[in-house]
Amino acid sequence: MRKKNVVLEKVPVTAYAAEGKALARQDGKVIFIEGGVVPGDVVDIRLSKNKKDWAEGKATHIHTYSPQRVTPFCEHFGVCGGCKWQMLPYSLQLEYKQQQVVDNLQRIGHLELPAMSPILGSKYSTQYRNKLEFTFSNRAYLTDAEIAEDGVIPQRNALGFHVPKLFDKVLDIHTCHLQQEPVNQIRNTVKAYALEHDLPFYDIRAQQGWLRNLVVRICTTGEVMVNLVIHYEDEPARKALLDHLLATVPGITTIVYTINPKKNDSIFDLEPRIYFGKGYVEEKLEDFVFKIGPKSFFQTNTYQGVTLYQVTRDFAGLTGTEIVYDLYCGTGSIGIFVSRKAAKVIGIELIKEAIDDARENATANQVQNAEFFAGDVVDICDDAFFAQHGQPGVVITDPPRAGMHEKLVEKLLQIAAPKIVYVSCNPATQARDLALLSKMYTVKKVQPVDMFPHTHHIENVVLLEKKLLASEK
Ligand code: SAH
């Protein structure tokens, strides 16, 4: 059974595993399965890894479909990399996410858990994103059916999403359910105009073509920002296209464009220019207003962003006297959100531009008790820094998927704040970090929040309280 190229037949899928994989057990082995299968399916699996206790593979055939499956609502399901869990009812997605959190904290973290509150589901399970980035490509992903049609090659230009694992192929999107209108209208109008006027879609292999990306932000305030990314300046063509967009689609409040002559798609080292409107949008969380420019980071699901921050603020349990450290603070949104209940907020973030935004956001919201520092948290959080800014009453930490650096965890153990609120987008690394912190801290509360319906991504908030030392008891 340790040979390669093994195909296991008619295996019942029993559970979900991390990263959207499903799980089966056979002959005492755990098998991780890719390929869009769900618990309750019976499938054939071609193994790609085959170890003593576990194996990994891809489902090649589904014999029996789980009775719990539902019909996906999107025409692009199956090829598109977004919304991959549409075949599960939302209530079941939430159950699996909750289970993932428990599994990670118990199996990786070996933590004793308090009674857990049920995951907070998203009020909107579609049209919940405030930002999407579409890619122009002259290499559309074609389905077998499209290629087979009378041997005629259909339209090769596409405006949509990269197809997972195929770096040069883009899936042409007709309707995306991740954002509210007018976003589909904006994308389809730009594409139709570009096709009609023979504007060159980007060729990622040859590094040629004019149109590269279309980024759309839509806020709960109703503001809509379009950022058109082009390979080089062509003023008459750019103006004609953007004027056509403005004249055709109502509701766009600002348009910027960015010239990207580089090989990579990132716009962070480029300067977007304003074509129409104020060049940014404003988003509201409770009564806090955040200015979001083309390069700013912001929680992509605003509705659940508020919920996540409310949980965080609630867990912090501030009384007005505490110094709060907001580690990995991005544009300062958590710190600003809790600032009225804190004596002082100290925010730390790697990206300098995000810190500039954080300071601006604090000023715009009349927050005078927050200071923000740009740099690596590991470097900034030294003894001198804590001595200068004060002993934290609460540390809020919201690291990226990789979790916290071990040195930072050690520092937190040494600083020994009474409370730590750990916001995580990856329960596996969170569990690892919590295990290290459990030397000194007890897990008091756990609250998963679903930020990304129809995907396997999980957000989880944990409250840690410092254990009483024998002398303190
Ligand atoms: N708390 C913020 C952002 C969280 S995303 C919010 O709710 O909006 C995680 C952030 O950590 C990102 O902004 C990323 O730039 C930052 N980051 C990643 N590694 C870092 C490091 N070593 N030091 C400081 N910040 C870091």
Description:
The protein contains 11 helices and 22 strands. The protein has 473 residues and is α/β, with parallel strands linked by helices. It has 3 domains: 7-69, Nucleic acid-binding proteins (OB fold (Dihydrolipoamide Acetyltransferase, E2P), Beta Barrel), CATH 2.40.50.140; 91-124 and 300-472, 3-Layer(aba) Sandwich (Rossmann fold); 131-285, OB fold (Dihydrolipoamide Acetyltransferase, E2P), CATH 2.40.50. The protein has a 7-stranded mixed sheet with strand order 9-8-7-10-11-12-13. The chain has a 7-stranded mixed sheet with strand order 18-17-16-19-20-22-21, sandwiched between helices. Strands 1-5-6-4-3-2 form a 6-stranded mixed sheet, with no helix packed on it. β14 (281-285) and β15 form a beta hairpin. α3 (183-196) crosses α4 (235-248). The longest helix has 19 residues, at 90-108. The radius of gyration is 24 Å and the shape is globular. 41% of the residues are buried. The protein binds S-adenosyl-L-homocysteine. S-adenosyl-L-homocysteine (SAH) binds at residues 297, 299, 328-330, 333-334, 348-351, 354, 376-377, 398, 400. GO terms for molecular function: rRNA (uridine-C5-)-methyltransferase activity. Its EC number is 2.1.1.190. The active site is at residue 425.
Topology:
Layout: E1 7-12, E2 15-16, E3 22-26, E4 29-34, E5 42-50, E6 54-64, H1 90-108, E7 131-137, H2 144-148, E8 158-163, E9 166-172, H3 183-196, E10 211-218, E11 224-230, H4 235-248, E12 254-259, E13 273-276, E14 281-285, E15 288-292, H5 302-316, E16 323-327, H6 333-338, E17 344-349, H7 352-364, E18 370-374, H8 377-380, H9 383-389, E19 394-397, H10 406-415, E20 419-424, H11 427-437, E21 441-449, E22 459-466
Parallel strand pairs: 4-6, 11-12, 16-17, 16-19, 17-18, 19-20
Antiparallel strand pairs: 1-5, 2-3, 3-4, 5-6, 7-8, 7-10, 8-9, 10-11, 12-13, 14-15, 20-22, 21-22
Helix pairs in contact: 1-11, 3-4
Bound molecules: S-adenosyl-L-homocysteine.
S-adenosyl-L-homocysteine (SAH) is lined by residues 297, 299, 328-330, 333-334, 348-351, 354, 376-377, 398, 400.
